[in-house]
Amino acid sequence: MALQLKIRKRFSGFELNAEFETEGGCTGILGASGSGKSMILKCVAGIETPDEGRIALNGRVLFDSKAGINQPARQRHVGYLFQSYALFPAMTVEANLGIVIPGKRNGKQAAIYEMLRRFQLSGLEKRYPSQLSGGQQQRVALARMLLSAPEVILLDEPFSALDGFLKDALQTDMLEFIKEYGKDVFMVSHSRDEIYKFSSQMVVISEGKSLLQGGTRDIFKNPGLMEAARLTGCKNISAIQRLGDYELYASDWNIRLMTKEKIGDSIRYIGIRGHTLIPASQPGENIMKIRLWGVTDTPFERQVLFHNAEGEDSDRIWLIQDKNENIPLFIQFPKEEILLLS
Amino acid sequence: MWELISTIDFSPLFLSMKTGILATIFTFFLGTGAARGVMKLNHRAKSIVDGILTLPLVLPPTVAGFFLLLIFSLRRPFGAFLWENYNVKMVQTWPGCVMAAFVIAFPLMYRNARAAFEQVDVTMIYAGRTLGLSERKIFWKIIVPMAAPGLASGIVLSFSRAIGEYGATTMLAGNILGKTRTMSVAIASEVSAGNWEIAGFWVLIIVMISFIMVVFINLVSGKSNQDVSGW
């Protein structure tokens, strides 16, 4: 089970240039809003046509500009869960599911009811989409998609239309449903949390380009690229000057830092995640005296924004700490937590 | 009053209804088909084709009648061809009434259908495709129900326009009692013959039918607009 994709598409002053290959399972596609990640899914589903390139799913060529292949969406067996769910408004839940099953096949009714039961929608058969909650609509859309027996499932920002509380419950539900179904899944999202929870491998998209692909945990641990670090939620990023194999000067923070890993020639930036910074009480190696800029409390943690006390124009740095801890005077940048980025 | 009614030949009423119904059936299928076709064109071609299809709505019906005569006159090649090969004659015949009504009513159906189709959320169509539905099924099961209020008002408007057609009808089909004299043609004939009561009778019938039609459209299309608040 695999998707091979290499496409190029120009649209409204934007160029999409994506290339990746996945092995199956759950793949997350992470990118900022407007980075072209939904367009990739649309090209896979056959809703949009790339200008050039090739898309193959499990060895089946869906699109190949050179060979002149462009299978219609109807024949691709690619399930697409739209952001708005795209339930047919003039049909009941039952009819929305029924339309997918061709003809008046025997057991059509039974198949529909079985699917409704699995998605905890029993009793809602006669309702219209407008009479359902957001979560119910999403489950109807999923059930309908699965009845069309897709080979692969594409989820386009599946949780963006739901509010916070509902979102958490639904994410768990959806994970269960999809695992049970055992199909490959691609999920597009701008939320690093969703991607992290959901996918075993991921692709990072920035400004229409696929930057990086790999295991989700690996990429979060070691993003390698500045844009990837930013997209995976690393707020503290500084340009550097290399001083030695294990020593650098972070020019945005006015500090010399030692690293655990060897600094390669291609390294231009470092990043460090706010929750990996360690409070300290006295100066030392990789330790900065700080000047507080601001503090924000969220329900379960504290976000501290500070400058380097030395040097006027240092960038602000985020520290995430427990709410019970005191705001420190010094901050240590642990060697092993420094992300080397190019 | 009853004496008057007993003297009236009712053939214009039946002719008008027959003409209206048949012309509306043609406009429905060809109008929705044309709306589908035009939507697939690129912007420039769309503007031009749309202009041609809408012309009968904005031109005086006599101009449409002139063109219809030009095409279907037995002295012209196409009209002669139809007559010689298929025994079909439009000039001074009831099919001519239907043809004239169809041409004049067509833009109303076409424009309403197109507006209704253009409002259909395109993701519904994409969803249908990714679910493996055929284009035909998508059109009839998904798009048409979503566009139903617009299509219904297109049908009602073209029917009302078809039964009211006068200009093109008299030019192409003429004014033969029992054959091509529809209600609207009858009104003009009766007035010029000085029969004001009979003309008034036909006027009353047409006003009633048209009024009922318009109220009907409002009821049908109003259903989907119930949330629109006045301002």
Report on the architecture of this protein.
Chain B: Residues 13-217 form the ABC transmembrane type-1 domain. Chain B: Keywords: Cell membrane, Membrane, Molybdenum, Transmembrane, Transmembrane helix, Transport. Chain B: Pfam families: BPD_transp_1. Chain B: The chain crosses the membrane at residues 20-39, 51-72, 92-110, 138-159, 199-220. The complex is a heterodimer of chains A (342) and B (231). With 342 residues, chain A is α+β, with helices and mostly antiparallel strands. Chain A has nine helices and 21 strands. Chain A has helices at 37-45, 73-76, 93-98, 108-118, 134-147, 164-181, 192-198, 216-221, 226-231, and strands at 3-11, 14-22, 26-31, 52-57, 60-64, 69-70, 78-81, 152-156, 184-189, 201-206, 209-215, 236-242, 247-250, 255-258, 269-272, 278-280, 287-297, 302-308, 317-321, 330-332, 339-341. The longest helix of chain A is centred in the middle third of the chain and has 18 residues, at 164-181. Chain A is elongated, with a radius of gyration of 24 Å. The mean pLDDT of chain A is 88. Chain B is mainly α. Chain B has a single domain, classed as Orthogonal Bundle (MetI-like fold), CATH 1.10.3720.10. In chain B, helix 2 packs parallel to helix 6 and helix 6 (94-118) crosses helix 8 (135-163). The longest helix of chain B is centred in the first third of the chain and has 29 residues, at 11-39. Chain B is globular, with a radius of gyration of 20 Å. The N and C termini of chain B lie far apart (46 Å). The model of chain B has no long low-confidence stretch (mean pLDDT 89). The chains are: A alpha+beta (342), B mainly alpha (231). The interface between A and B is medium-sized, with 25 and 18 residues.
